[in-house]
Amino acid sequence: MVQTAALLVLEPIFEADFTENAYGYRPEEKDDQGRSQRTGGKDHHQGTPQGGVISPLLANIHMRRFLRAWNEWELGPKLQTHVVNYAEDFVILCRGTAARARQYAERILTKMRRRLNPEKTRLCRTGPESFDFLGYTFGTCYAVRNGKPFLGAKRVMSRNLLTLEEATRRHL
Question: Is 136 in contact with 154 (CB distance < 8 Å)?
Fold first, then answer.
């Protein structure tokens, strides 16, 4: 109940100051059925507490510092980048400046007393390689009509489905 009260008071204050590329758990965010997305994320050992009513707001407040520094240092235009952020996860899209973008991201996070998660962080040349973000795999897709390649996204199949599929295949 205290978290809900804090959320009702704090959310409008911080919402006005969030950057346009912070997408996670914003009040205007709706799912396919038009319902607000107000759930917590996966268990983490670092960052904001997970599962509480106020957790999404805390994640957005936490990443707000990173996004504001990125914008204030004008790294988007300097490095030709675009940051896509959802709660505490983010991807930096760039052309030929990935190593420098990563260095700046590490520098900003260090100032925040944070670090990149080495298990989730890598440089990726989209096209020959792909990457997963928010339940989608981004990389080369092929047009159904003519088979031509294009950069796109496909929904990631859950590990449980893959396991079931593999088990089924073995027994057929």
Answer: yes
